Amino acid sequence: MTKNDFVRWWLQTDFGQKKPIRWDSRHQSEIWTHFDQVATAKDGTPKVMCKRCKRVFDHLQFGNGTSAMLKYMKGRGCQKGAKTPDIREFTRTAVSKIA
User: Fold this and answer.
1) Where is each BED-type domain found (predicted)?
2) What is the pLDDT of residues 79-97, one digit of tens each?
């Protein structure tokens, strides 16, 4: 799915019609190289997903911010490779990923 396809899809979801989010905004923090922006397939709730272990968190506009992402990457959860579904399985059932 391309970025434009993702945004078009997301704008049609329940969440996309109610709460604006800027998917294409520039991310200044280096931590973004370790995370993808995703959304739940069911209602479009924005999330971020760790590229290394595939764990999903609330999107920064609705969660804790980049400091929480950095703390997670440096912490034991990601280093251990927390047991999470394979990205193909996860995106097939739960999220759509921005390209």
Assistant:
1) 26-85
2) 655 455 555 555 555 555 6
d(CA 47, CA 56): 6
Contact of 73 with 50, CB cutoff 8 Å: yes
For the chain, give the number of residues.
99
Asked if residue 21 lies in contact with residue 98, where contact means CB atoms within 8 angstroms, the answer is: no
Lookup: tokens for 11: 């704008």
Structure tokens at 13: 């979801």
Residue 40 phi, psi (nearest 5): -65, 140
Residue 70 has pLDDT above 80, yes or no: yes
